[in-house]
Amino acid sequence: MPTLTQPLALKPTTLFTLYSIIFLGSAGFFITIPAYVSLFLTDHSLAIAQNMPIEQRRTLFGTVMSAAPFISMFFTPLIARFADRFSRKVTMVLCLIIAAIGFAMPIYAIVIGSIALLFAGNMINSLGSASQPIAQAILADNSRGKTKATLMSMVAIVMTAAMSFGPALGSKLSATYGTQAPFYACLIIAIFCLILLNLVRLPPQITLHNENPLSFVAPLKRSQPGLLACLAIVFICQFSWSLYFQNIAFIFPQKWGISVESSFYQYFMMAIGVVMICSLLLLPRLILARINVLSALRITTLFAAIGMILLAITPTPNTHIAAMIFTAVMVAISFPFYITALSDRASEADQGWVMAMSSAMVGLAWTLSGYLTSVFVNIDLILPTAIAAIGYVIAMIIVPKKAATLVTAAN
């Protein structure tokens, strides 16, 4: 394991492999969204779905798309505990095999017109996505300080790219080659990652013998004070950002008469991804050259709150764009800071578990906000964005005061 002064222990080929696995964990969801829309909600729907009223089809679509994140939230921390206890590489191999099966099943389900098999494939794929936080754990376990924050920035870039461009890629594949194409694409990526993983050699990990992998008490006892606060920050920041992100689809049509099908809306959504990726590439390491992680986290969450206030009061689309750029930068660069702060408070042997817990917080935040945004909009159009501003203020307040020290399994 590297110390504060030792160089990164991961080779470029290993980094490429780990980031490919992280990309698959997000892209497997976003690339396939257009295919599920086509299969359930359009004239090209499965024969069984076509015989249902549109209301039932919408319910079925929502069930398929929301059940997978819930399964992932429940099982991923458990799978990560087994990875920490036994072998992260072996666990990732098994997860990638499961993911490949999960992508292959919908391909066959479309051929035979089986909604049950389509649903089962999505569930199985959600279990395979547990490879994503395990790959993050290997990055976190073999880096320190500014290097860790830089690697976490790259994690955010890969996940943002999947979220921003995955649906567009899936839509293009579906339109050109049919609804099976997005699943084929994800299957190929899964097989590619599996081959790469078996070709690289990962650094040795600390394993804890004779410990129950189903217990979450032991990793909590080994952690430093502030770990639960950092987990709360992950949830609050993701929940706050997702409230605004989903509020956009209501603000543009109702406030300015800009439809979600318009080119303005589409370019605006693409611009969010581009701004976030560029800021993550350029800013975190520069900031940490001057201040520590916790100070950076306090400042960025404060500025994110200010940005949300600006987004709530902007009178025109152009001023909204300006406020979005500022806010998206702050939201993006806060991610590696709070993930680094969280990682630093867990022991080296528990990095898989803590990354999986952060992944569960992200999934929970986006799942809850999807429902609550609609509820809040019925009260007031800008309420979700206003609550997001409050959320970032709360996140700033609960940032731990003391910096973490190096924690090993023996501590």
Automatic annotation (TrEMBL):
The keyword Transmembrane helix applies. Residues 20-403 form the Major facilitator superfamily (MFS) profile domain. One of its GO terms (cellular component) is plasma membrane. InterPro entries: MFS, MFS_dom, MFS_trans_sf, MFS_Transporters. Keywords: Cell membrane, Membrane, Transmembrane, Transmembrane helix, Transport. It is found in: Cell membrane. Pfam families: MFS_1. GO terms for molecular function: transmembrane transporter activity. This is MFS transporter. It comes from Photobacterium carnosum. The lineage of its organism: Bacteria, Pseudomonadati, Pseudomonadota, Gammaproteobacteria, Vibrionales.
